[in-house]
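Allow me, if you will, to draw on your knowledge of protein folds for a short while. The matter concerns a single protein, recorded as an amino acid sequence and a row of backbone structure tokens. Kindly check, if you would, that the fold set down in the tokens agrees with what the sequence suggests. You will find the record immediately after this paragraph.
***
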Amino acid sequence: MANRRKFIAGLGALATGSAAAMGTGAFSFMNAQRTVSVNVTGDSSAFLGIETSQSKYATESGGTAEITLNSDSNGSGDGINANADTRFDNVLVLRNNGDRDVSVSVTDNDDNVEDVFQVWVADSAPTTGASLTRIDNGTTFILGEGEAAHLSVGTFLRNNAATHLPDQLTFSVDSSIPNDAVEPQ
């Protein structure tokens, strides 16, 4: 009987050693196909809706929102004033068409250190004297599910000689909300 127990113990030790040497049997590679369904839509109906209908200084072309502060806008002017500070309120409306609160930030490709182009956000269409939160300087704001935020843009040319204004805004949206995110005013 003792020999039998030694044989079984030895067999168990051999199996354990073999498993340790060869691995546990878990797989290290897998290749599988899954279906993905993606709709591409215009800016106004995307998960982050970018609406232009409330401003004559923004249009939608080919499903993409564009801010036009030149003779191509629906205004009667040809552009912004030189040597002046100018703000255009309610140029774009951002709408959270997703299913959760998100954080949003805006950056531009303005390489001027003078910071001549700025973007602000408000929770409703701004009026004269309204409180706006600047967001192009790294500030992230919270946009709740189904909520809208109104964007204003401005140029500051009165005290600088900048010759280049940005030609692109980048909207970054994240479902994780950082601790320093602000609520639009």
